[in-house]
Design a protein that fits this description.
about 625 residues; alpha/beta; Heat Shock Protein 90; Rossmann fold; 5-stranded parallel β-sheet; rod-shaped; EC 2.7.13.3; Sig_transdc_His_kin-like_C
């Protein structure tokens, strides 16, 4: 498309408009001039009647025709082109000038004389006048150029002045704005200054408003680019965490199977040896080391979001107070804690995991402050998320609470900030940190359906903002079983591809009073169950080479729809969780587990699916 400059358009439009105006004004002036000429002729007629008529009357009355002729010659001028005077008595007329030269105006009047004592006027003659004036073409030829020249100077002069003002006040400023917008580079938009089109601060017009609109658009573009950059970083972080979570979950699954066998057999051996013997002590040490390994794997599973935690209705301010009460004992005296907590906020979550979040973040804050005096600020407030807020757009819109934990330490450098939630990443000296603290915090928060945002300024401090969904449900007290239940000869089918875990589980369950049939291949278990229908419970591993635990459960439900099935697994995936919700699976037990955990889980499944079962 051909581009025509605004200046050229305005120049052409101005020239055309001024030309039309000049022509119109010139013809109007010409018409007025012609009408003025006619008016001047009428004025000459009136002056003739007032001045020369008296002399003519006396001359006609006295028959002084020489005088009449002299008057005729003197009254003929450029205005009055023809004069005729006639005497009524002798029918004599004298004429002078050119008659009937068109176009013309004519004037006729009677010569009246007052006679004697009578008041009556006697008409003694007539006066006839003609005045010729130019035709319109003659006016155009003679006078229009003069009018055109005068009007061109005036109209185009005014137009030039107005155009100069318009060019300076509008076009030049629009060109500045156009050049400014052409130079906009989205890669350097952060360093872009707002456009300046007016040096006068007191007076602002529409061009300044347009410049403000461009400036606002640039500011919105900056914000949008920042928001997209944050979302891109958030997506990259989520993908990275997901990949690391998959890796960690796979490692944890294999390690949990090994650890389950170690802890299970160690606990069985403890039960069969003398309580105060050296062997018993060594087994207790094995169990203790296994428990520490279990806790480490539990942290990895929390990070990978593949572990379950008990969900209950909590008053979050109470959880924070409890965690801070424990932390105050271990914090140095140079660190002051300030809290502003909303006591009415309730969430659904695991108090133990939330304790861990608060203690990890406060510990990090205290370590950042170091030996100097500093302040930890913990605030809990009600908040609402609209889905467009920077950094937390991953959350669904709704009512949330915001838990902020701030310190006035040295802050986190920008080059480190994107990596702080990575597992095993730490800036501490060797041996002073595992690098799992913030990774575990990240996993716990996301397991609770929330998000965690970090705002850190070097030299000012760091603020961790945790957003968790609120609940309107009331707090429910949960009673826990304290005694280890045993069986009364119920038959349990045990399926696991790990022989050590299979043997460990069989030994524990038989020790608890159950009859156990164990299989390390799911298809062998199905074949057995097709011929045996007196089974009280099936316990299966989740991940197996031939068939998963969920697929095995689906096959068994076809044979025995009411058969209770329990999963034990090194980690739990979404399919297992859905199966639990759909009552395909009645219970999921996380590996590694204690003897009491397995006893409680089996007992609860048997009682819930067959209330007539009696547990000892």
């Amino acid at each position: 498309m051909k581009i025509v400059s605004l200046k050229l358009k305005i120049v052409l439009s101005t020239v055309l408009t001024c030309t039309l105006i000049v022509l119109a004004i010139s013809f109007i002036d010409l018409f007025r001039y012609r009408e003025a000429e006619k008016t001047r002729i009428h004025e000459e007629f009136v002056n003739f009647e007032k001045g020369a008529k008296v002399t003519i009357r006396e001359a006609v009355w006295l028959y002084d025709w020489n005088m009449v002729r002299t008057i005729l010659e003197s009254q003929t001028s450029q205005v009055i082109s023809f004069v005729e005077i006639c005497d009524n008595k002798i029918s004599k007329c004298l004429q002078h000038g050119t008659r009937n030269k068109s176009p013309y105006l004519e004037f006729q009047t009677s010569i009246l004389y007052e006679g004697g004592d009578s008041d009556d006027e006697i008409e003694i003659g007539k006066i006839y006048l003609q005045s010729h004036y130019d035709t319109i073409p003659t006016y155009i030829y003679n006078d229009l150029p003069r009018f055109l020249f005068t009007n061109i100077l005036s109209v185009f002069g005014i137009a030039l002045i107005l155009f100069s003002l318009f060019h300076r006040q509008v076009i030049q400023r629009l060109l500045i704005l156009e050049q400014y917008t052409r130079k906009i580079d989205l890669k350097k938009i952060d360093s872009l200054d707002p456009p300046v089109c007016n040096d006068r601060v007191k007076f602002r017009d529409e061009i300044d408003l347009l410049a403000d609109a461009v400036s606002n658009l640039i500011e919105k573009t900056k914000n949008e680019l920042v928001r997209r950059k944050n979302l891109e970083q958030q997506l990259n972080q989520a993908q990275k965490m997901e990949a690391l979570g998959n890796l960690a979950g796979g490692i944890a699954h294999d390690f949990n199977n090994i650890l389950a066998a170690i802890l299970g057999f160690a606990e069985l051996s403890c039960l069969k040896c003398e309580p105060h013997s050296e062997l018993h002590g060594n087994l207790k040490k094995i169990i203790g080391a296994g428990q520490r390994a279990r806790n480490l794997i539990s942290q990895i599973l929390v990070f990978s979001r593949r572990t379950d935690s008990p969900q209950e209705i909590l008053t979050l301010a109470t959880v924070v107070d409890e965690a801070l009460h424990l932390m105050r004992v271990s914090l140095p005296a140079n660190i002051r804690i300030e809290t502003v907590l909303d006591p009415d906020i309730r969430i659904k979550g695991d108090s133990t995991r939330l304790h861990q979040v608060i203690m990890n973040l406060t510990t990090n804050g205290a370590q950042a402050i170091g030996d100097r005096s500093g302040t930890l600020k913990i605030a809990l407030r009600d908040d609402s998320i609209n889905g467009q807020q920077a950094g937390i757009s991953v959350l669904q819109p709704g009512r949330y609470c915001c838990l902020e934990i701030s310190d006035d330490g040295p802050g986190i450098p920008d080059e480190i900030l994107p990596r702080i939630f990575e597992p095993f990443f730490t800036t501490k000296q060797s041996g002073k940190g595992t690098g799992m603290g913030l990774a575990v915090v990240h996993g716990i928060v996301h397991n609770h359906g929330g998000a965690i945002i970090v705002d850190s300024t070097v030299g000012v401090g760091t603020t961790f903002s945790i957003y968790l969904p609120q609940t309107e449900e009331g707090i429910i007290e949960i009673d826990k079983l304290s005694d280890t239940p045993t069986g009364s000869g119920q038959t349990i089918v045990l399926v696991d591809d790990e022989i050590q875990v299979l043997d460990m589980g069989k030994s524990i369950l038989e020790g608890l009073g159950y009859k156990v049939m164990s299989f390390n291949k799911p298809k062998e278990a199905i074949a057995f169950l097709q011929e045996e229908n007196s089974i009280d419970l099936v316990i299966t591993d989740l991940t197996m080479p031939e068939m998963s635990g969920v697929e095995l459960a689906n096959s068994l439900k076809v044979l025995y729809p009411s058969l209770p099935i329990m999963l034990w697994t090194g980690y739990k995936d979404d399919i297992a969780s859905e199966s639990l919700k759909e009552n395909l699976i009645h219970r999921i037990l996380q590996k590694p587990f204690h003897l009491e955990d397995l006893a409680q889980a089996v007992s609860q499944v048997l009682v819930n699916t067959n209330p007539t079962q009696q547990q000892r």
